[in-house]
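User: Hi! I'm working on a homework problem where we have to compare a predicted structure to a textbook description. Could you give me the structure for the chain below?
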Amino acid sequence: MWDPSHAFQSHLTEQQAHATQAMASDITHHDGPVFSRIQDSPTDEEQPVQSPGPTRAQNEYERIDGRTGSSFLQTLIHLLKGNLGTGLLGLPLAVKNAGLVVGPLSLLVLGVVAIHCMRLLVKCSHHLSAKVGKPFLNYGEAVEYGMENVSFLRGHSKWGRYMVNVFLIITQLGFCCVYFVFLSDNIRQVVEAANGTSWDCHTNETAIMVPSLNSKIYMLIFLPFIILLVFTRNLRVLAPFSTVANLVMAVSLVLIYYYSFTNISLPVNLPEVGRAKDYPLFFGTAIFAFEGIGVVLPLENKMQKPEKFSTVLYLGMGIITLLYISLGTVGYMCFGEHIRGSITLNLPNCWGYQIVKLLYCFGIYITYALQFYVPAEILVPLAVSRMSERLKLPVDLLVRIALVLSTCALAILIPELDLVISLVGSISSSALALIIPPILQIITFHNEGLPCWVVLKNGLISLLGLVGFVAGTYISIVEIIARSNASPDGVHFQVM
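Assistant: Happy to help. Predicted structure tokens:
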């Protein structure tokens, strides 16, 4: 009888060294965790080791790479790159949904809470890794060992790891869906304005739009190129392209900031408080942008001096929060009620900013492979585990094709960039970034005199995440159905 859990564990063991080495070197992601989070978890026969082994003080900062790991600056750069992407570009619309005053304040609060949850995850990982005698635990392992601390959860602890992996898969494939929509919307806009585009970016006379193919057709055009991209199983091959993508995306962001800052019309007369029914959409988009918690443990593990990671975390996430608030606010002030799902779609249709869109699209195209890596490394080994050597490669490629087709199909069904971002953020990002870390701290330290106020604080954070999860998912789905039924060429849904 084939045991899926055993296959899952054994194949993750085979991929552990490759995943850790390839993903945590110089390749990062832009919207979510793409570093190695699929390392070997404890087998059923492996029991937590309380002692012997290194003491907690010795083990807490002993990491895999030792002195050959990342420097302070390198880790900071990886953290910044790991949190900047399409989520950032959707924040101006998020601020519109919350209001010009409520939006930035909410981003600040959500940023503080997200950073706190990242710190909780690192703290729990340190404690549990010392307790079981391991130098490093990934997110799933931390949840699994944390559940083993509670007697009535001990027999089901492996499901904690499975749950985290499921949310990681949903998150990563959700990012891939967002990329399909982002690419089709931006490339379509460039093509439609191409005939009337000039180098004059100071007037709006160049915005002559010529209707072209439906955005869904553009997704189908991109499909074979993305399939070829994910056939690259060794991410080191993509390292040079990833570096170029990071540079062009950074330049594009600078130009987006410049245009937004220099084109604010004064006085600003925008709502300070948005509509209550739109606030869950704000939450989904904001938590989508802040969902970088999966990169935290691998980055901390790869540092030369991991005891300084807290400084990196607070500095890096402080910068990221400032960028989120500033672009969200300035972008909304610049474009007002006309702001779209990605601020790139509001840029002038002159060649200077059309090139910005194309450069960002190139970066997103390369990033698709990096986001795709995690679900592929989890699901492909399960699919090929019972195949003969002759069939392993064909099955590997077929699974990759099937996963890409699924992301493309979902993007075609929901071709609304802002709603896809909000839906993915509400479903999976809220769980990984807000709900799980506070609960993990409670179950990790519950028998070590955890103060009541900490339990209450953690309960409130998890409750916030849960409310956002439910409300954001519901409102996103309702809006998807409403827009689809209102679109003449959309897929029509009916709520029974």
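For your comparison, note the following. The chain is about 65% helix and 0% strand. The chain has a mean pLDDT of 81. Good luck with the assignment!
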